[in-house]
Write a structure and sequence with these properties.
TIM Barrel, 35% helix, eight-stranded parallel sheet, disordered N terminus, alpha/beta, 328 residues, 2 domains
């Protein structure tokens, strides 16, 4: 685990004390302390990135167009050097429907040395339609129970079923999110509130953060995505307002200057570092020395689907490592 660098040094003196800022900042003291005043610390700025700051992960969307199947997806990720993956529920379900079992899936994961960090599912837990929501909650319960059996402790909770409906009251969304968090308490799988930039609901960072906070549940977490931050029009400048524990997984991708936020689609995502997204700025805000932030490449690029799957997976890992290693 990454060790905290020497960010602040407090020097005592007979007349008071000075709080010295980081070397990368101005050397002028921020505040001078006297016997009647206290030091007001400057917000810390993280130092250079360490490999332990991040866990590199492959979202199987990146290989989805190759139609490998559940086991081949895992094997490809492992051969590429990944030790963490995000699976898609339908791929696991197809494996089970074909005669596999969660126990067999778990054994394959152990044999390959891979951890399933999160699962991508689309249960309709959020809509106003009570019948649809009831069906979605039952689906989500089954999926979380299945994931628990393979050791996965997270599942994405996007606004499926409310992407093209009218605006939902975020207080109601918060109540419904708390409801699925409580479902997750039974299985040990935590729903991650996911933003979709193209959706009528939960399209902005502020939307998911509000609903997560208002849920009042200690396990509440939000799932962000470089593409969706851009697509939904969220400002990177206000990301520091988020608490460091709010995000456990960040979906990694990039976009080129060719596409406006209005015009860009999922298929236009490229490998991180191949575009103009302010990824390093986002990583510097979200990373923390107290835990490793999971960086999971999720792209749906048809051009990548025409390449060899192992090459795509190796490129994804290399791109994420190069980007983080270049952070000053």
């Amino acid at each position: 685990m990454f060790h905290r660098r020497k960010l602040l040094k407090l020097l005592s003196a007979s007349a008071g004390a000075y709080l010295l800022p980081l070397k990368s900042r101005s050397t002028t003291p921020v505040h001078q302390q006297t016997s009647t005043t206290r030091v007001i610390p400057t917000p810390s700025v993280p130092g250079p990135a360490s490999p332990a700051d991040f866990t590199f992960c492959l979202n199987m969307a990146t290989l989805r167009g190759h139609n490998l199947g559940f086991i081949k997806e895992l094997e490809t990720a492992s051969r590429a050097g990944f030790r963490s993956v995000e699976i898609w529920i339908d791929s696991l379900q197809h494996f089970i429907d074909g005669g596999g079992t969660p126990s067999q899936a778990s054994q394959h994961l152990q044999d390959l040395g891979i951890t399933v960090e999160n699962a991508i599912g689309f249960a309709e837990w959020i809509p106003d339609d009570e019948a649809a929501r009831k069906k979605g909650l039952a689906q989500l319960q089954r999926e979380m129970d299945m994931l628990a059996r393979i050791g996965c402790k997270r599942i994405a909770a996007p606004p499926t079923g409310a992407t093209h409906t009218g605006k939902l009251d975020l207080r109601v969304v918060a109540e419904r999110y708390r409801g699925i968090l409580e479902l997750g308490d039974q299985s040990g799988v935590v729903p991650q509130l996911e933003m979709w930039g193209f959706s009528n609901n939960l399209s902005r960072v502020s939307d998911v953060l509000y609903a997560a906070m208002e849920s009042g549940h200690a396990s509440a977490r939000v799932l962000l995505d470089i593409f969706h931050i851009y697509k939904g029009g969220s400002s990177v400048e206000t990301l520091p307002l988020m608490g460091k524990t709010a995000v456990g997984i960040l979906h990694m991708n990039d976009y080129t200057e060719k596409f406006t936020s209005a015009a860009i689609t999922d298929a236009d995502r490229v490998h991180p570092g191949d575009g103009i997204a302010p990824i390093k700025r986002i990583l510097s805000i979200l990373r923390t020395p107290d835990r490793s932030l999971i960086l999971s490449e999720e792209v749906f690029n048809p051009a990548y689907y025409r390449q060899d799957a192992l090459v795509v997976a190796k490129t994804a890992l290399a791109k994420m490592k190069a980007l983080t290693e270049s952070m000053g």
